[in-house]
Structure formats: C-alpha cells, structure tokens
Amino acid sequence: MELxxxxxxxxxxxxxxxxxxxxxxxxxxxxxxxxFTEDFYTTLEDITPTAxxxxxxxxxxxxxxxxxxLEFVNEQHLQGRAWPRKAFERAKARAIAAEMHxxxxxxxxxxxxxxxxxxxxxxxxxxxxxxxxxxxxxxxxAKLYPGEWLFGDxxxxxxxxxxxxxxxxxxxxxxxxxxxxxxxxxLTSDSLQQWLREASLEKDIVEEDEVxxxx
Length: 215
Hints:
By secondary structure, the chain is an alpha+beta fold. The chain is built from 9 helices and 6 strands.
C-alpha cells in the first residue's frame, strides 16, 4: 500500500487517513508531497482524478477521499474492527463521522489546521455554532466512555475528529470539561505524537492557512 499525503503541518485530511495505519500498525509506504507545488500536481495527475491528497494505491486500486480510505482499510485489513461492534453504536459513530465529513464548513474555513502556530482569530457565529456542536459530541461520548475514545476503543470517528483537536489547540478554543478531556486524549496519543514530531521537521509555509494573529 502507498499513501500520498500533504504537508503534515497543514493537511488535516491526510492526517485522518494516515491515522488508521498508525493506530493498527499497518504496513504502508507514505509519500509526502508539498501542497500547491508543481511536483504535487504532476505526481498526482496520473494517479487520482482529483489531484488531491490523501490518495491510497493498493494492488491496482486507487482510493481517494479520507473517509473512503478509512473504510477501505477497515474492510480489507481489519475485518471491520475500526467501527464499534454494537450495531446502534456503529450507526451513531458513522453519523458522527459523516457529520464531520460533510459539515462544519465555517470551522474549517476559519480555523485551518496549522500545528506549529498559536493564533488568535475573531470567529463568526457559524464557527461558534460548529464549535458548540463538536463540544456537545465530545462531551456526550465522554460521559459514556470516560477517559476513552469516542466509543471506547479507537474508531474511524476518532480519526475524523483528530484534526479538530489540533485546531482547537492552535487557536486556543475553550471547551467544556468532558470535551477538553477527550481533546487531551487525542493530543497525547502515540499516533498524534508521531505525526506532531514529523510535522515539526517541516519548514514550508502555506500562506492561505496562516490565519489570525500570533499569540
């Protein structure tokens, strides 16, 4: 398997797809491309129709889109272990993951992932609503699974929300007690720590993701 990703400091969707390989210690070749460069597009143009990352190539099959990659790996290599075992929890986990996959546009636009930065931004009402909703999701699951992942064991739902934990850290977003506890579990996990170490080695600047005032 070969996984194409972008700059680890900025590429939130790359992180989501990469996490399942790290969490389950799956063998994968990771090829990192610098976002918005000529090499980025020329490398991907013959691999994926979207010319975007992440993209997974495996045994002649190309899978683009983070959630599709997570689902593919879960089905092909994990026998479904990356979703909760109980049907009703699995349905809820999928709904939560889909909510992130297709929503929270104000949050994503106003708080781009930028791991090494500490910034202050003026948020719109839309972004504040997104934050409130994510806080509610994390808090509710923290009551059900104190000190654990969203559904006890790590799942695809956790992969979908991991970049948000980093965004909240970058922009100093205050969370409720339960949501903050979950955020810290994400940030201190072995997989996130590995990603952070690798991201810290990068020197590239993506200007469009350098928003807000430095703190």
